[in-house]
Amino acid sequence: MKQNVKQKKEVPKNGLLILGLLALYKWLQKAWAQWMSNKTKSISKRAVTIALVVFVSLTSGYCIYLGVHAITGKSKGNAFTVTPIKRPRHLTESGAKASPLPPVSKQEYRRIQKFQWYMDSLARSPTGRKLYDSIIATRPGLMDSVRYIEKEYQNFKNQ
After folding, report:
1. Which of 116, 90, 96 is nearest to 159 (CA)?
2. What is the pLDDT of residues 120-145, one digit of tens each?
3. Which residues cross the membrane (predicted)?
C-alpha cells in the first residue's frame, strides 16, 4: 500500500536568510499599507479622486511640455541636441598607400636580408635549431614580418 508522504526538503543556510528577508519584506509591506490606510480614513473618496486627477494632469502636462520644448529647441540650452555624424576621410580609401619613398631604406633592407639568411641557417643546422625554435616561440610573427617587408620592398622596387 502506497502512502503519500511529503518528504522534507533540506533548505540550504543561505536559503534561510533569503526566506527571512522575504518575510521581513512582506511584513514591511503590510505595515506600510496599514499605516497609509489609517492616515487616509478621514479623506472622502471624491477628494482622493480629485487629487489623483489633478496630480496626473499636472504630471502629464509637464512631460508633454518638456517633450515639445526639446523638439522645437527654441532656446540654446535645451536638453536634446542633434549632432551630425561625420564620416571619417579614410573610410573610402582602399588602404594602399602610394608613397614616393621606399618604406625601408636599402641599408635596412640589407640588414633584414642578412637576418633572414641567419635565421634560415639556424633552422637548417641541428645545433642552431634549438635557438631558432626559442626565437620563433618568443616572437611568433617575426618571420612573417620579415617576409612582408621583403615583399613590400620588392613591390616598391618594381614600380
Report:
1. 96
2. 888 898 888 888 888 889 988 888 88
3. 49-68
Q: How confident is the model at residue 95 (pLDDT cuts 50, 70, 90)?
A: low
- CA geometry: angle at 109 spanning 104 and 110, to 5°? 155
Angle at 66 between CA 65 and CA 68, to 5 degrees: 65
Q: Three cell numbers at 26?
A: 512582506
Rg for the chain, CA atoms, rounded: 39
Stated length of the chain: 159
Q: Where are the domains of the chain?
A: 14-71, 106-158
The Cα–Cα gap between 11 and 18 comes to: 11
CA distance 133 to 63: 70
